[in-house]
Amino acid sequence: xxxxxxxxxxxxxxxxxxxxxxxxxxxxxxxxxxxxxxxxxxxxxxxxxxxxxxxxxxxxxxxxxxxxxxxxxxxxxxxxxxxxxxxxxxxxxxxxxxxxxxxxxxxxxxxxxxxxxxxxxxxxxxxxxxxxxxxxxxxxxxxxxxxxxxxxxxxxxxxxxxxxxxxxxxxxxxxxxxxxxxxxxxxxxxxxxxxxxxxxxxxxxxxxxxxxxxxxxxxxxxxxxxxxxxxxxxxxxxxxxxxxxxxxxxxxxxxxxxxxxxxxxxxxxxxxxxxxxxxxxxxxxxxxxxxxxxxxxxxxxxxxxxxxxxxxxxxxxxxxxxxxxxxxxxxxxxxxxxxxxxxxxxxxxxxxxx
Length: 354
What we know:
The chain is α+β, with helices and mostly antiparallel strands. The chain folds into two domains: 9-112, Rieske [2Fe-2S] iron-sulphur domain (Rieske Iron-sulfur Protein), CATH 2.102.10; 127-353, Naphthalene 1,2-dioxygenase Alpha Subunit, Chain A, domain 1. It is built from seven helices and 16 strands. It has helices spanning 115-119, 122-125, 148-153, 161-164, 208-215, 288-320, 334-353; strands at 9-15, 20-26, 32-36, 51-53, 56-58, 65-67, 72-74, 93-99, 102-106, 135-144, 185-188, 194-199, 241-248, 252-257, 260-270, 273-282. The protein has a seven-stranded antiparallel beta sheet. A hairpin with a 5-residue loop joins β11 and β12. The two termini are 35 Å apart. The relative contact order is 0.12.
């Protein structure tokens, strides 16, 4: 919600996998609404800007004009339309709801469940986190030539950490007591949502740069957190807590740590193409030192995510070769198995309804 705080604020989001575009706007009454980004006159794309603050939008094809609440306000030469009623030609609405300040849209004409139902156990386990006390500090967007599930799998377990991140985070999440970054707490919900607590290493040897960054703020690789538990975290009450991954089925995540959180999503574009988006949030820095500390964490997270993505495309090519017909999963990769089982079940349910 923080991206559109004022009446007239809006942003546009293209949903490539569904072949549609959505306008999310705060109307003159302060209410949040979502619309298909299409003019109901002849189907032209209505809004071409990515975001902004306006009183309304005018279609650049024939000049039909709409207010930010979706209502049709002006039609050139309106008398030429037989028995015309503006109220019947408002922008086509999309179901929108909010959760802890986050916006969710649902394209079903009649949603089969509420947003609260979709969030499941996160309503009590995660919602208390102080999301509203933090602001976006950085965003990244990657195009990955791999299926969205293959891409997401690299972010669902700690088994890879000691190998993929051995240079960027050599002992932040692994140590003699947990050399393979075994997940310290895991909760797999029946609706497909997942919670994983990633351990921190109490004996993590801070680099000189990390020491400076940690002195002035919370950092991504600070080992066991060191700043105390936040509301909405530490479900497993682990002494070696690092941070937590929270997957909102099917492909969005709300990941939280001590003094920060980051959002990411694995948007399917095609059978073997994914757009991965990542946004990092911190409390607004009060000093230059805090800003430098946050910049350090941003770069660490950026580099770790790039390392995770590195394996995706070569894995996809290998799977395409047909050299293997199945994969083998350990108990520490239970979240990967849970994702595939949930997808299979949801697809079967959809086919049964068709």
